[in-house]
Write a structure and sequence with these properties.
The strands form 2 sheets. This protein has a 5-stranded mixed β-sheet with strand order 3-1-4-6-5, sandwiched between helices. It is 32% helix and 23% strand. The chain is of the alpha/beta class. The two termini are 24 Å apart.
């Protein structure tokens, strides 16, 4: 099985880039091993529909992104299959969230969507100012987000080994260069 871990988000707007930053963080800080499966980590940024040819080539996809949830606190982590999106998720956040949801629904309508799981975190929305700085609220809960991703990848048959300890903020400061 070929697994795609797809980091989504706009890295210019603080917490809204956490999907990309988390994807890069995992790539830098962990080695993943499976006897049966391969895994690839990709920065999907805000490309949405341009990602369709890539998404349909995998057997399983894990999307890392921000999500809007009614009544949730910044840093709250949600993990769910795309086929069972909780009613509390509003998708009323940034433009990239809405466009990615529409892209996934379009792939699903065409019958080409592989099993897809979403791990999302509620961001602090900064408006129009640009920054690579993540909010204190998200940083305080980052361990929960990291552990949820590792837990989910274990369910797919991947063992993880920590190989580095570069902090998430340091990753966020350099995500624009690529990893």
């Amino acid at each position: 099985m070929r697994v795609l871990v797809l980091g989504i988000g706009n890295i210019l707007f603080g917490d809204e880039g956490i999907g990309v930053h988390l994807c890069n963080y995992l790539k830098v800080n962990y080695a993943f091993d499976s006897l049966e499966h391969s895994i690839e980590f990709v920065d999907g940024g805000t490309l949405a529909q341009a990602l369709i040819p890539m998404i349909v080539e995998y057997d399983s996809v894990l999307v890392l992104d921000t999500i809007n949830v009614a009544g949730a606190a910044i840093g709250d982590v949600y993990s769910f299959p795309f086929s069972a999106i909780p009613d509390t998720i509003t998708w009323a956040g940034s433009a990239h969230e809405v466009e990615m949801l529409q892209t996934l629904k379009m792939i699903e309508l065409l019958g080409d969507l592989p099993p897809l799981h979403i791990i999302g975190v509620v961001p602090y929305i900064i408006g129009s100012d640009t920054t690579f700085e993540l909010s204190a609220q998200l940083l305080a809960r980052f361990d929960d987000l990291e552990q949820e991703v590792l837990r989910y990848l274990r369910t797919l048959g991947f063992e993880s080994k920590k190989v580095d300890s570069t902090p998430i903020q340091a990753i966020a400061n350099h995500s624009y260069k690529g990893y």
